[in-house]
Amino acid sequence: MSTTQVPTREELVGRAAELVPQLRGKATWAEENRRLHEETLEALAEAGLFKLRTPKRYGGYEADTRTLADVAAVLGSGDGATSWVTSVYWIPTWMACLFPDEVQDEVFATPDVRVCGTLSPSAIAKPVDGGVVVNGKWGFISGAHHAHWQEIISVLVPAEGEPYPIMSLVPLSDLLVVDDWFTSGLKGTGSVSTVARDLFIPQARVLPLPAVLQGQSASVRNADSPIYRPPLLPVAAASSVGTVLGLANAAREVFLKRLPNRKITYTAYESQRDAPLTHLQVAEAVTKIDQAEFHAHRLTGAVDAKGVEGSPWKLEERARARSDMGNAVRLAKEAVDVLTSASGGSSIYNDVPMQRIARDVNAVNLHALMNPNTNAELYGRVLCGLEPNTLYI
Predict the structure, then answer these.
(1) CA 203 → CA 125, 127, 222, distances in Å?
(2) Could you give phi then psi for residue 368, rounded to 5 degrees?
(3) Domain count of the chain?
(4) Which terminus of the chain has fewer CB atoms gathered within 10 Å of its CB, N or C?
(5) What is the CATH number of the domain that holds 238?
């Protein structure tokens, strides 16, 4: 049993804040090279930020989702790509904690282990003696270049009965990495594709996804920990919202820093700060940031409280979790859009962070699971008394 002292939320947020200048200094490199810098990874590991969802018995912190959101928001104020990759690692790391304890012993034998993954069932699995054989390809695998393991989803086609999705853990070394991440936003995340070719996975590293989505776990030793009790989708939602809060706050900081020395060309305003329009734009943007934080904190508060209580999740609560995530994402983008449109033509230069912030927050809004419209429709559907038209709730 590890005797590692668990830092407080405030200490972890403080560690993240200390990294912000370094993250800003490496942000351009990450964009140009389409992956995080090795020094960034080393700094994150040294700060203990890869341990937030690792069980305490392996030296982890078992941090709650409010801590995840707060830490990611600070990282996102430095660099959206770094925050995104760190957040993505937290989710599959948490998912690894649902597997049998002997599987966890293998995964967490690596100090500061990094687990990437996806929820997309874009592969086919066939049952064989002792496990399954998988063939397929997964896209948008953020942080794959630097990961040790990947959580994959495939559709198992049994000899009898209906096909169903399964979740598996595989060493990254067993997969082919396809360097196809050429994008307009979140460039530094290195969200490449990975491929499995006739990959054998032992049965211990396979779980039925429907059971996982309903909150079932194969772990005995994690059963009493509050952070591993909630179902997957609320956890994933709560683990994801911090990055957009950080991007919105970064936009606010960048805008206000440039404001006093910017004139409004072709007008009498020698300082943009004097224009009433600017006052309205700043107030609108900051109000939207406040609203985004409300939804993010309501979401993390619900996940953490129900984890401690061990109480079941109602269907409406599950749908609201995704709605809160979608609203945080939407409002953060709206805030960034207001500040970007008020930043003038000079903000499109590569050395002005506003253009990267705008591209990154737009990329998050396009993510299939985080898309505000998809999540709003699902919530409204459930509120209208209809069954959800997705397993991912």
Answers:
(1) 12, 9, 20
(2) -60, -40
(3) 3
(4) N
(5) 1.20.140.10
Residues 372 and 269 placed together within one structural domain of the fold = yes
Q: What tokens does 24 get?
A: 């800003």
- Of the candidates 237, 231, 240, 227, the one whose C-alpha atom is nearest the C-alpha of residue 307 is 227
Choose one of 80, 97, 113: the last residue of a domain: 113
Interval 159-180: pLDDT, tens: 899 999 999 999 999 999 999 9
Per the CB < 8 A criterion, the answer to whether 276 and 359 are in contact is no
The answer to whether position 355 is within a domain reads yes
pTM over 0.90: yes
pLDDT, tens digit, 9 for 90 and up, residues 108-165:
999 999 999 999 999 999 999 999 999 999 999 999 999 999 999 999 999 899 999 9
* 117 and 142 Cβ atoms separated by less than 8 Å: no
Please report, as a single letter, which amino acid is at residue 368. Answer: A
Structural domain boundaries enclosing 343: 232-383
CB 182 within 8 A of CB 359: no
The pLDDT tens digits of the residues spanning 197-228 come to: 999 999 999 999 999 998 899 999 999 999 99
Question: Which residue type occupies 196?
Answer: A
